[in-house]
Amino acid sequence: MTTDLAKHDPEAPEPLVPDALELEGEARIEGRTPLQLAWAKLRRDKVAMVSLVVIVIIIVLALAAPLVASIVGHGPDDQYRQAGLTPAGLPKPPTGQFIMGTDDLGRDLFVRVIYGSRISLLVGVLSTLIAVAVGVVIGIVAGYFGGIVDTVLARLIDTVLSIPFLLAAIAIVSISGPSLTVTVIVIAFFSWSSVARIVRGQVLSIREREYVEAARSLGASDRRIMFVDILPNVLAPVIVYTTLLIPISIVSEATLSFLGLGVPPPTATWGGMLDGSLNYYRVAYWYLLFPGLALLITTLAFNLFGDGVRDAFDPRSDRLFATESETEDEKK
Amino acid sequence: MKATDDAVAPLLEVTDVRKHFPIGRRPLFGGAQPVLKAVDGVSLAVRPGETLGLVGETGCGKSTLARCMVRLYDLTSGSVNFNGSDISTLSRGDLRPLRREMQVMFQDPYGSLNPRRRVGSIIGDPFTIHGVAEGDERKRKVQDLMELVGLNPEHYNRFPAEFSGGQRQRIGIARALALNPKLVVCDEPVSALDVSIQAQVINLLAELQERLDLTYVFISHDLSVVRHVSDRIAVMYLGKIVEIAGVDDLHDHTRHPYTQALLSAVPSADPDAVAARERIVLTGDLPSPANPPTGCRFHPRCPKAQQICVTDDPELVSRLGDVAVHQVACHFPLADGELLTVSKPAIADIDPDLGFDATAAAKGTSS
Amino acid sequence: MPLLEVDDLHVSFGTPDGVVRAVRGVSFSVDRGRTLGIVGESGSGKSVATQTIVGLTRGARVSGRATLDGENLLGADPDTLRRIRGAEIGMIFQDPLSSLHPYYKVGWQIVEMIRAHERGTSKSAARQRAVDLLDAVGIPSPRTRIDNYPHEFSGGMRQRVMIAMAMALNPAVLVADEPTTALDVTVQAQVLDVMRDLQREFGTAIILITHDLGVVADMADEVVVMYGGQVMERAQRRDLFYHHHHPYTEGLLKSLPTSGRRGKLTPIAGTPPSMITPPPGCPFEPRCVHATDRCREKPPTVEIPGSGPHTSACWLPVERALRTPLEAS
Fold first, then answer.
1. What is the reported pLDDT for C225?
2. CA distances from C158 to A50, B206, C139, C148, C241 (A)
3. Which of B219, B280, C122, C264 could disulfide-link to B54, CB 3.0 to 4.6 Å?
4. Is B200–C186 a contact, with Cβ atoms under 8 angstroms apart?
5. How large is the average pLDDT for residues B323-333?
6. Which residues of A touch C48 (CB under 8 A)?
7. What gap in Å lies between CA B63 and CA B187, rounded to an integer?
8. DSSP labels for A43-72?
9. What strand order describes the sheet that includes B35-46?
10. Do C259 and B285 touch (CB under 8 A)?
């Protein structure tokens, strides 16, 4: 035990964010932190566990995409105008050579669907992380300082929330031109505000807690109070919201790519493929089906997992102790 | 007895301190911002080494006063002197070095410890914040503190939820004592604890005071606890001190009618004494601190009130030949042995809600 | 036969950490017009025991016997229990706000309560009774206050409203669970007086659950001391305070700061036991200064000779009780 202490306790510089985060991660040693309790509950949730397995498979496939391509022998952008198209120049149905068929340019749909998952996950996770980081900081600052700072930031949050996503995205992309970076930034820009709003609400109640007052009475700086004392206490809702924001971002990316505003061709994206399939789905159902299915399974898995995480963190769904004070709630 | 030694310079002195909180919104056209006068003109001194008890009922402003004393709140007006220097207008940054010398211990052993942080890190906070100790040295100091307050130093890595209420209060004590402060303000430190545990914590506080030469301001609504730990007691009512005296004086020569009512209402675990006691049941409720009564704030509930009590606010001074440190704010202080046998207010010029309540008044003394 | 009688009550709850055995074989009884004080610290099972009797512990495993006027309470169907609650047993709790509906006027709540149990009562008659009740519990100008919402009352006044509501149907038993814990002492004195007056007038039996020995010394005729889900000692008020037998009772009384006497208190060392794995014998054994090896088996409940019924669950000789007046200890 003592060797363990030495590992993470010494030298704690002023902004102790990593320390605070580490506490959550290291909590397994003893005691049951909310994170451990949540994990224990999550493990009993069959739907969430199946979703997690699906998510892991998708991630592994995305990481192994080049390997898949080399095994199949088709690159994601390779056009097989002879083997991959019918004599009439239409996409070919699934066969032994192209297990999900081909698209209108004779590219292997299977390989492209796999490659498309990379963009979806990359954009989904990256823009979510940016949005959460920005949202948490702005939410904590607004909630903690209150007053004029809060008023300004709260108005900013409201303003961003009231901008129509698609219209603004079209405007931005038409100025900057579509690219992966722009896609991530646009999605993050329209997602942070809801995170900030949730965090702000939490902080408003947490800052009135006695332990925050205690920290203040010890002479702790604002920064320290915000990130050492308050941040760990808003992590649970942030984690829940993060898992639910990822599928939303994935759908947003697909939407943008579908409209030609996302990651530009020839890069394989599910949204782009769906867009391309629109002229052919009457003769080539597989062109629409497989990218659509991939998108559906991925977002469904993330959403179901997110629901599980939310339930796991919800104190109302577990009754730890039926003590005297708790049973009091039942009196009425 | 330190309590009566006037020659010693006070460690902390507050002079005419007021703390008004804005309530609601300022009227759009004209009119002043409505305020809640939580503390409204309090002066007192705390001498080094003593324990000053601060009692009063909910809403009397005792916790607000304590927070003003250590400048957790900005004052509306008045001044606070700590250790000879005026700290009433210092900024948060300038106050920081002083935080080492004055500490606060909070009431709620569940609320005052961050549930997401380990105990070692919570107790070590003062060292980190003030750059006193780092790394292994910090850990050693924290474990010394844990031992000092009777916690197992091996529990360094646990979370607050793994400790019982009494142990959590010990954690709070360890944190407050980390930097060897001169003054410790204890805000209801034992109110949330069961009696058997409460006694453990009270003993610990007394022991630490002796060993570490601490000065306590001890806030509680529980008079029997305050009487046990304090050298002097200040009784607050609606933002003001109505009586301040040494423990024995306050008990044996009670001057303020409110003090007497408060003392008589304290439950005692002695059935024969309870049966023998004359109990004064105050009628009505505490008036709102947003709109306190004129003159003496206690007059609407006071059986001795006269016209002057409605108009003139009595000064806090020594009366009836009491020692200088026994002060009371009352126009008609109680003589020794005088008992308020009637508990109905003498003046019924007030809001019917707060007023005379015949049933309780008539039956108040019969029990 | 006593009005309310509880015999060998066991209550346990399943939790993720294990089965919490909150109440383990508790017996007590109370007569008309008498007050039974149940004291104990948090986790002693005092609230769970009384809540179980009125059917408020859902999902708990319950065994034992509880009768009100001969009528079985533990096996009663929900409809019967609902009739008994309110009409036969009134209840007040520590936090009146949790039991009063915040969006309805208090008068309306009392009227509804009366009419729910007494179908024949007209609205105006019920309202008149509500006014009388508020008057009886000492609420000034009840005719106007009846149309106020709960938040418009102070803590003490709110608790009076709760008492008025609990007494609306003139129940045989009033269960008061820490009724004054959230109140200031002067307000506490007012509320206790109200309860005492109503008891005198209506002959109500009161079960007063509290952690405050001072309140018990003031109010109770008979006292049950609970610890670790069991009854440690049961005695008439004066016997309990002046001739107690059980070391836990003694420890509790010695822990109290006595007026104006500085110096060391005598706390009980240690902390209360886990109710998931309670000690096999006497629950107080791990903290008891008199503990010996035989305390690891369940001690007998012995009769202590004295002025009234007095029992104690301890191996120590009964003569001990007669030698322990509070002053001498």
1. 95
2. 52, 38, 9, 11, 32
3. B219
4. no
5. 90
6. 322, 324, 327
7. 7
8. HT-HHHHHHHHHHHHHHHHHHTHHHHHHHH
9. B35-46, B12-22, B77-82, B85-86
10. no
